[in-house]
Specification:
It is an enzyme of class 4 (lyase). InterPro entries: Arg_succ_lyase_C, Argininosuccinate_lyase, Fumarase/histidase_N, Fumarate_lyase_CS, Fumarate_lyase_fam, Fumarate_lyase_N, L-Aspartase-like. It is a single chain. This protein is mainly α. It folds into three domains: 100 residues, Fumarase/aspartase (N-terminal domain) (Fumarase C, Chain B, domain 1), CATH 1.10.275.10; 241 residues, Fumarase C, Chain A, domain 2 (Up-down Bundle), CATH 1.20.200.10; 93 residues, Ribonucleotide Reductase Protein R1, domain 1. It has 18 helices and six strands. Strands 1-2 form a two-stranded antiparallel ribbon. Strands 3-4 form a two-stranded parallel sheet.
């Protein structure tokens, strides 16, 4: 196999160097994007008068044959040809003869790989967006089915205030909606064509870059040829979006792992999505959720890997950029699998409503009791102190607030009346949160209706 640069060299490349520098073992994944780019470049060469119609037709025919073999998994990728670009070009020359050697006219692998990656990013982001939408639909379904289930909300992992479980699921729906916006931003940054920038300085053929961009479905052009071939910011944005998705999935996993323990027993995970122990027969382990949580570290690592690779590069293309692909491919694959895994978990999740509802008199209603005093004219800080003393007293007596008499309440403030006992019911307290985005039944139903419209759920 002849190497495209061998005219300059007088020694054969060491096998070790071939193995060390090859990227086709992983960038072969870009083969369909590379062929799609080649087909567009053929049209550009034809428009510029570099190819005849007959030559263009011949090259297109062979490229489509190669594409079919790639899709069937029968195309013979060779490591000695280094990368996906040279593998496809070498095969094209083999089949079309010397006319195949015209394909690389006015093009460098520098703008070629940048184009392939941008095409790949656009395709994969579309798939991630669909998966996120499916996940959000499942969260909306859960929210709609759990409107009347009350659960404790935790801050500092301590019981804070009662909420509707629907409110919890809608919170994650908002997180995954913001994740979609991050992906869309990465898509927009990638949606510009670098093709026609050459190695670094542009090309000296009469190429219509706008025509090529349109053929490839790009919204615009990368305007500076040096930036076009060395920019990987769109990859960073994609890896960042994947890392944040992973973080959100990890937090949801952590909640469900805790809630599925015997100590909480708020939810039951389906047996088919759990595993057991090799030694302890009673165990039912939430391994899928734990792996989602664990794989988030890989997503962070991939982002930091590429950031570190890029930070020391001199301007324009450097071979270090070959190291951008494996973190990218791994993050895309990991993110998609984790979203799908979480969707399966949520589909099979069952809630133990009898275990989730806080009891009458639970101290989680303390803020509402303080606000009760505020409405009677006491400054909030003073009301906070009074209720804090009241709770400390109840704890010292081994009681919850529901066990106290009105006389005991009045020992802390004469403003307490019989109606204060209404505020010891978590269900009553939840429905007092009627502000926009709150957890009252009325507001949660409104949020669900909006979410269903936005997600296209009937």
């Amino acid at each position: 196999m002849h190497k495209p640069w061998e005219g300059r060299f007088r020694e054969k490349t060491e096998e070790f160097v071939e193995e060390f520098t090859q990227s086709v073992s992983f960038d072969r994944r870009l083969a369909e994007e590379d062929i799609r780019q080649n087909l567009a470049h053929i049209k550009t060469l034809l428009k510029a008068g570099i190819l005849t119609k007959q030559e263009a037709h011949l090259l297109e025919k062979h490229l489509l044959d190669i594409l079919k073999e790639v899709q069937e998994g029968s195309f013979p990728f060779r490591k000695e040809l280094e990368d996906v670009h040279m593998n496809i070009e070498a095969e094209l020359i083999k089949r079309a003869g010397e006319i195949g050697g015209k394909l690389h006219t006015g093009r460098s692998r520098n703008d070629q790989i940048a184009t392939d990656e941008r095409l790949y990013i656009k395709r994969e982001i579309k798939e991630c967006v669909i998966l996120l939408k499916n996940l959000r639909k499942e969260l909306v379904r859960l929210a709609e089915n759990s409107i009347d289930i009350i659960v404790p909300a935790y801050t500092h992992l301590q019981r804070a205030q009662p909420i509707r479980l629907s409110h919890y699921f809608l919170a994650y729906r908002e997180m995954f909606l913001s994740d979609e916006l991050r992906l869309i931003n990465a898509y927009r940054l990638a949606d510009a064509s670098p093709l026609g920038s050459g190695a670094v300085a542009g090309v000296d053929f009469p190429f219509d870059r706008f025509f090529t961009a349109q053929e490839l479905g790009f919204r615009s052009l990368v305007r500076n040829s040096m930036y076009a071939t060395s920019d990987r910011d769109y990859l960073l944005d994609t890896l960042y979006a994947c890392a944040v998705i992973g973080m959100h999935l990890s937090r949801l996993s952590e909640d469900l792992i805790l809630w599925s323990t015997q100590e909480f027993s708020f939810v039951e995970l389906p047996d088919r999505l759990c595993t057991g122990s090799s030694i302890m027969p009673q165990k039912k382990n939430p391994d899928v959720l734990e792996l989602i949580r664990g794989k988030t570290g890989r997503l962070y690592g991939n982002l930091m890997s590429l950031l570190t690779t890029l930070k020391g590069l001199p301007t324009a293309y450097n071979r270090d950029l070959q190291e951008d692909k494996e973190p990218l491919f791994d993050s895309i694959d990991t993110t998609k699998k984790c979203i799908e895994a979480m969707n399966l978990i949520l589909e099979g999740l069952s809630v133990k409503a009898d275990r989730t509802t806080p009891p009458f008199g639970d101290p989680m209603t303390a803020t509402d009791i303080a606000n009760y005093l505020v409405m009677k004219g006491i400054p909030f800080r003073e009301a906070h102190r009074i209720v804090g003393n009241l709770i400390a007293y109840a704890i010292s007596q081994g009681k919850n607030l529901g066990d106290l008499s009105l006389r005991e309440f009045k020992e802390f403030s004469e403003l307490f009346e019989e109606d204060v006992f209404e505020l010891l019911d978590p269900r009553v307290v939840v429905d007092r949160r009627k502000t926009y985005g709150g957890t009252s039944k009325q507001e949660v139903i409104r949020q669900i209706q909006i979410a269903k419209r936005e997600e296209g759920v009937r």
